[in-house]
Amino acid sequence: MKLIGRFMSPFTRRVAVSLKIQGLDFEHLDLSTATEADEIRKYNPMVRVPTVVLDDGETLIDSDAILDWFDEQSGPDKRLIPEKGEARRNVLQLVSWATAAGDKTVIAFYERTRRPEEMVYLPSVEGAEGQLLEAFGVLETAVSKSSGWLVGDRITQADISAIVFLQFSRIVLPHLFGDRAFPALDVLRERAYVAYPAFAETDPQPS
Does residue 79 sit within a domain? Predict the structure, then answer.
């Protein structure tokens, strides 16, 4: 099985972390959409990451769909999103806040770094930045009210996504976080790094 995409992509990284926690082996193809599009196109004609190629050659795209597929295969003891009920709804809602923050981070980063300065519409960029901070604020409140993990007594996709997307945002938009602290999320991150080597193994900026 192959996982295609760089760990700097939080969408790729959360798949990698999840597969490792679920005990699944994969070959990581560390390919960038910006510089290695032709190589990625061999596996995904849309040149999107993450892309997973299963052992039988089937290709999976989109991190949500990929994670859902592996949850279904892994069974109840290794699922990272509960199968049903209130716990499932809670995890999915928190994941939605985290991925929304990730989407807004990508928008703001590309607007600030890929467009000529005179073409950047700052109100739109600053709006996206405000939205991502609000999303992380929701996650901060949720974890501060939890007993350790965001939902239940073990790690779920909500924890993985919150940790991965916040770390990504801090790396690419550092100016937003100088005076904006998320202490409860930082405690969650420390707990996850201690409990699960998958986080350090996929860290886009290892120490």
Answer: no
